[in-house]
């Protein structure tokens, strides 16, 4: 599934400048990813006896003020989302080592693949400021429940990522 998602992304990236023209301009794609995030969250919630994480997951706080969001440059938004995704990917990877139950492990693996694909994709977007450098420190919170990882991912895709693609579409889809 992760390879399929990456292939889908790459097919929507214009050659040369690595801009996500079709991905950004076709609103149905982000709606598809939001639907997948909701589905993963729902399926994880249906898994029986998910353990409390012995080592809590550090998750990004992905809430935001739309007014503040609109005042940021696309590059700043991209870097903020990259920081959130990097923390989320790390949390999913850490939780995978603690969840042995098949249902939960399968959903975590899928979330990890999707979040990592978004991370890789956003790293390839080319802007004036150059490539992304790791080492950011987004606002975060510790969570002991696996379901918090799914909730955070859905909120990130449904919020910042969707609005980011919407903002890019204004410039790229004329």
Descriptive terms for the model:
9% strand, 7 helices, globular, Growth Hormone, Chain: A, mainly alpha, 174 residues, two-stranded antiparallel ribbon
Structural overview:
With 174 residues, the protein is mainly alpha-helical. It has a single domain, classed as Growth Hormone, Chain: A, CATH 1.20.1250.10. The protein has helices at 2-11, 21-25, 27-46, 66-70, 74-96, 102-124, 146-172; strands at 52-60, 140-145. It has a two-stranded antiparallel ribbon with strand order 1-2. The longest helix is centred in the C-terminal third of the chain and has 27 residues, at 146-172. It is globular and about 50 Å long. The two termini are 32 Å apart. The relative contact order is 0.23.
Question: Could you name the ranges where pLDDT drops below 50 across 5 or more consecutive residues?
Answer: 12-19
CATH topology: Growth Hormone, Chain: A
Rg value:
16 Å
Distance between the termini: 32 Å
CATH class equals Mainly Alpha
Count of distinct strands: 2
Strand order of the largest sheet: 1-2
CATH architecture: Up-down Bundle
Shape: globular
What is the strand content? 5-15%
Helix content: 55-70%
Number of domains: 1
Assembly classification = single chain
Helical/strand content category: mainly alpha
- What characterizes the major β-sheet? 2 strands, antiparallel
Question: Would you tell me the overall average pLDDT?
Answer: 83
How many distinct helices?
7
